[in-house]
Structure formats: structure tokens, C-alpha cells
Amino acid sequence: MPISTKLTRSLGITHPLIQGGMHYVGYAPLVAAVGNAGGIGCITALTQPTPEALQKEIRTCKALTKKPFGVNLTLLPALQPPNYEAFAQVVEDEMASGQLRMIETAGHFRGLEPFVKKFKAAGAFVIHKCVTIRHAKSAEKIGVDMISMDGFDCAGHPGEADIGNWVLFAKAARELSIPFVASGGCADGKQLAAAIAMGAEGMNMGTRFMATTEAPIHQNIKQALVDADEHSTTLIMRSMRNTERAFKNKAAMQVVEI
């Protein structure tokens, strides 16, 4: 029996599960498959080389499913930042059909607020990823609809605060006035039940979706993820305060040593 939460009711989906943005993984075939299965997936905007390529990927997704889907736009500093405004404009234009319904944002390069206002004006449901309650409250103030509360367990960027899910989710439920979904180290139904018990409206998963048939990565990588255990990740770039959780392989360990 489907679980009804604020996430499912807001987006018109069956299951309270999000496939979050992932570089070189969040393409239309995976996003459409998640949508057709009752969840909601995100095309990763900055995986696309140009705004025009993003528009093409969004339209490919629309051809593969009639279900709602989303786009992830991550705003991070870079030596040569992409044209965030142009990518955002494509997203806004493609929302006109009503099928592109959710925008997942992360980071705050050049300020998050103008993008949130732009997306909200176009009718988007905006979910912002945060690793601390303080950041979540800031996002709440500028008008996002929901928080993706990203605990230290997460892959990708866990931030620098090192706060685990059990502490983060419990505090989010007490202190936020907008709903949140659980993110980081999430993979199965038992964790979904636990997240909902702690006040979350669903789960945002990344790595778990990499091990699916539709994920556009090599089968050997998928098998390595399936065979991995809790000791199979490591943290890199901590000395630069740009921490990333990565799969523990030879290359990652060389980065750790630098």
C-alpha cells in the first residue's frame, strides 16, 4: 500500500522517494524509470555541457515518461563557473508543461535566493539540500518548500560539520517549520520507515540508484557497490574544507595522502 506524505501529495507521486542529482548519472533514462516506478527523479543540470543540452535532456525525459520529474541545480564555486542563470532559464522555460515539477538545489554560489524566487514564480516545488539546521533555517527564510536534510553518512559533499543522520533528523523535526526528507546513507524500506518515524516526509537517495539497471555506469562499478560494506568509503579533500565521501579505491586513497 502506498505511503502518503507531504512529499507524495505535493508532487503527485506514489512513493516518497527521490532520486537526487548525481553527476554523470542523473540522465533522462534513469529519471524516467524512477518516475514510472512511482518515485521522482532529478536530471543533473550541470552534467550537461550547455543549457541547450540540458533542454534536450529534459525533453528526452518528457518523451520517456508522463510522470513528474525534477532537475538538480547545484550552485558551487569554481575556477570557471558555468552560466547558472542560463541553465536556470532553461529549467524555467521547460516547466510550462507542468511535468517538470521539482527543483533540487544545493550550494549557494552567488546567492541562492534569486534562483529560488525564479523557480517559485514559475510554479516549482523547491527542495534545498542542507547539512546543518542553521543552513536549513536560512533556506526556509528565503522560501524553499522542503529541505533535503543531508547527514554526514551521505556520499558526495557531506559538508564540514560532521553531523550524523540520527541527530540531524531529530533536530530538524523539532526546529524547522517546513517539511524535510532524509538524505545520506539511505537505501531500503526499513530506513524509510525509520526516517518517517523521525519526522521526515520521505527519502532522497543517490548511490542506491547507481546500482540499478537504468543507471548509465559500468556494470563493474554497479557490482562493486553491491559488494561493498560500511568500510568501503573514505573522505577526501578535508584539508581544503571541500570534503567529499568517495568510494575507497586506489585513486581515492592517493588523494587522501596528498
Explain what the structure shows.
The chain has 258 residues and is α/β, with parallel strands linked by helices. It is built from 11 helices and 10 strands. The protein has helices at residues 6-11, 28-36, 51-64, 84-94, 113-121, 133-141, 165-175, 189-197, 207-210, 219-227, 250-257, and strands at residues 17-19, 40-44, 69-75, 100-107, 125-130, 146-150, 180-183, 203-205, 233-236, 244-247. Helix 2 (28-36) links the parallel strand 1 (17-19) and strand 2 (40-44). Helix 2 (28-36) runs parallel beside helix 3 (51-64) and helix 3 packs parallel to helix 4. It starts with 5 loop residues before the first helix and ends with a helix.
The overall pLDDT average reads 95
Radius of gyration: 17 Å
Uncertain regions spanning at least 5 consecutive residues: none
Secondary-structure element string: HEHEHEHEHEHEHEHEHHEEH
End-to-end gap: 50 Å
Tally of contiguous helical segments: 11
What is the number of beta strands?
10
Which structural category fits the helices and strands?
A: alpha/beta
Give the biggest beta sheet: 8 strands, parallel, barrel
**Share of helix, binned:** 25-40%
- The fraction of residues in strands falls at 15-25%
Shape descriptor reads globular
As laid out across the biggest beta sheet, the strand order is 1-2-3-4-5-6-7-8
Short description:
Helices cover 38% and strands 19% of the residues. By secondary structure, it is an alpha/beta fold. β2, α3 and β3 form a beta-alpha-beta unit.
